[in-house]
């Protein structure tokens, strides 16, 4: 029987089969056989051991289209990053780090700013200008007042999207709108292990029925809220590559390989002064550049592998 991993907890994997039944599975031997650890989003084969109690074994992991390392999820088409326009104010540094991480993994990103109902036009314009210029799809929504959700849904339809964001931005509220039956999908099965539904320390994949009509299966992955992100495998000198809006001004830099930090006659800094680049983005660039320069590679690697 073919299925998809919704969630993995304490050695159990919750697999939804094509007829939308969920089985609690163990991954006996699969590790040894393939050397691959099953993760949320994996397409798998299971054998059913006990139909009444919905228990089975994972017997195979099908080839992955892709696999993200943070959060670890497989077979994803795009990432939706949710921030609030205000309350809480966006943590721009965190947003940029997330964008860098997703670009590293070649994943398209939709930036979704929530709480439009309590934000001013000016606040929205600033965000729009800063991020749309870098080639991202930027949406403004109010989950509370159900504004802008149709546009978001249209972008989600037929795809698997991983949904991320810091806490307090409205992620649970959004998920409730998209998956009103979220509690039921895994429901009783994992409750005995997971305890307390609101401790989202694990990623979980949901089938979005409303958007799956016409055979366009739509999934959304809820991921744990984060407060910081450590970048992996990015060298300070490569950072500019993650700021695509700098590119058109780089030919004006006097020095080849200009870092746009302290060099004289820098095209990027000139563009910034002329108001052609976003201060927010440039400030982040400078902060992250310095962080990367100061990072002790061995140390940061060790920290990452703990996660
Ligand atoms: P999470 O921590 O990201 O899961 O955020 P929640 O969904 O728990 O929402 C955090 C707070 O923001 C709650 O008090 C929500 O009622 C509120 N909230 C969510 N969406 C909106 C919105 O569109 N507008 C406003 N004004 N408040 C919202
Ligand atoms: Zn420069």
Q: State which percent range the strand residues make up.
A: 15-25%
SSE string, helices as H and strands as E: EEEHEEEEEHEHEHEHHHEEHHH
Q: What composes the largest sheet?
A: 6 strands, mixed
CATH class of the largest domain: Alpha Beta
Q: What is the level-2 CATH architecture name of the largest domain? A: 3-Layer(aba) Sandwich
* Largest beta sheet: strand ordering: 10-9-8-11-13-12
Bound ions, cofactors and other small molecules, one mention each: guanosine-5'-diphosphate, zinc ion
Mean pLDDT: 89
Describe this structure in words.
The protein is built from ten helices and 13 strands. The protein is globular and about 70 Å long. With 307 residues, it is α/β, with parallel strands linked by helices. Helix content is 30%, strand content 23%. It has a six-stranded mixed β-sheet with strand order 10-9-8-11-13-12, sandwiched between helices. Strands 1-2-3-5-4 form a five-stranded mixed barrel. It has three domains: 2-63, OB fold (Dihydrolipoamide Acetyltransferase, E2P); 68-222, P-loop containing nucleotide triphosphate hydrolases (Rossmann fold, 3-Layer(aba) Sandwich); 236-306, Probable gtpase engc, domain 3 (Ribonucleotide Reductase Protein R1, domain 1), CATH 1.10.40. The protein has helices at 30-34, 92-104, 121-132, 149-156, 171-178, 182-186, 188-194, 267-273, 279-294, 297-306, and strands at 2-9, 12-17, 22-26, 43-50, 55-61, 67-69, 72-74, 78-84, 109-114, 137-140, 160-164, 204-207, 219-222. Helix 2 (92-104) crosses helix 9 (279-294). The site of guanosine-5'-diphosphate (GDP) has 14 residues, from helix 5.
């Amino acid at each position: 029987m073919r299925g998809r991993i919704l969630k993995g907890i304490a050695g159990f994997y919750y697999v939804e089969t094509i007829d939308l039944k969920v089985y609690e599975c163990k991954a006996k031997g699969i590790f040894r056989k393939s050397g691959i650890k099953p993760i949320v989003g994996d397409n798998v084969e299971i054998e059913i051991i006990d139909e009444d109690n919905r228990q089975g074994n994972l017997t195979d992991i099908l080839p992955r289209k892709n696999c993200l390392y943070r959060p670890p999820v497989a077979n994803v088409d795009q990432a939706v990053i949710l921030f609030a326009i205000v309350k809480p104010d966006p943590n721009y540094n965190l947003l940029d780090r997330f964008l860098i991480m997703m670009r590293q993994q070649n994943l398209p990103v939709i930036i979704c700013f929530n709480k439009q109902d309590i934000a001013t036009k000016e606040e929205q314009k600033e965000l729009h200008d800063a991020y749309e210029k870098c080639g991202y799809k930027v949406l403004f929504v109010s989950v509370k007042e159900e504004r802008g959700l149709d546009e978001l849904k249209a972008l989600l339809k037929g795809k698997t999207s991983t949904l991320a964001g810091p806490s307090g931005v409205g992620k649970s509220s959004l998920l409730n709108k998209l998956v009103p039956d979220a509690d039921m999908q895994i429901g009783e099965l994992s409750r005995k292990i997971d305890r307390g539904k609101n401790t989202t320390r694990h990623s979980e994949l949901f089938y979005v029925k409303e958007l799956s009509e016409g055979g366009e299966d739509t999934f959304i992955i809820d991921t744990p809220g984060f407060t910081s992100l450590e970048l992996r495998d990015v060298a300070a000198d490569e950072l500019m590559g993650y700021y695509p809006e700098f590119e058109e001004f780089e030919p004006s830099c006097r020095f080849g390989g200009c870092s746009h930090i302290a060099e004289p006659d820098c095209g990027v800094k000139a563009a910034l002064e002329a108001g052609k680049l976003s201060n927010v983005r440039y400030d982040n660039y400078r902060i992250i550049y310095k962080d990367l320069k100061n990072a002790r590679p061995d140390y940061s690697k060790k920290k990452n592998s703990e996660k």
